[in-house]
Amino acid sequence: MNIFDKYYFEKYALLSICHLCKLDIKEFERKDKPDLQSQTYNMGIEVVRAITEYDGFEQSLINTYLGKGLSGDEIVASIRQNNSRGRFKGTVESINGIAVFSRIYGPCDANMHIKPVIEQMKNKSLLYATYRHYKTNGLYCFVNTRLISEFHYPSIIEACRQSTFSLIFINCIDTMLQWTATSDNLIKHKISSELLSEWDRSAQNK
């Protein structure tokens, strides 16, 4: 199962949105422009991945080896052989025959993760005219990092204000940030590991 496909992210986003907003998932349909639509709730949500170029490369690298039947030793040997230019900054080791990846590659500036989020808000706002419009028009961003903190909230809120959306979710792995035009602030939702696992399993089941 390729967990980086479009269906996975849209289903995962929908599960989390319905949980946070107490909505019935059966009332939504997966469509296009925007990706998630509900006539009942008069709501449309576009789902995007707002990740850095390196994050995209890293996920592509890991996905290359997932579900291929390779042993941990084979994966480690292959990555080390193909990483002669040092593009992969993390580490990978074989533990009991299983490849274990680590994203740790030294100090990291969280601003590098905020930039793609703001860019996606701008890009999707430019495409807004081509979407079907609802009473609530939202954007859901996956950022693939826990490094966004309250220090960065003012920049994010300003970008939300300038966007064409009235509801924005930012998925920071185990934390969800929620902005609405009416409240004009970021609400921080901490998500339990049990719930994260449940959403992951459900999103992988087509």
Helix content: 25-40%
The total beta strand count reads: 9
Strand content: 15-25%
Distance between the termini: 10 Å
Element pattern in H and E? HEEEHHEEHEHEEEH
State the major sheet.
7 strands, mixed
Oligomer: single chain
Describe the overall structure.
- This protein is α+β, with helices and mostly antiparallel strands and 206 residues long.
- The protein is built from 6 helices and 9 strands; from the N terminus they run αβββααββαβαβββα.
- The strands form 2 sheets. A 7-stranded mixed sheet has the order 1-2-3-6-7-8-9, with helices on both faces.
- Strand 8 and strand 9 form a beta hairpin.
- Helix 1 packs across helix 6 and helix 4 runs parallel beside helix 5.
- It is globular and about 55 Å long.
- The chain starts with 5 loop residues before the first helix and ends with a helix.
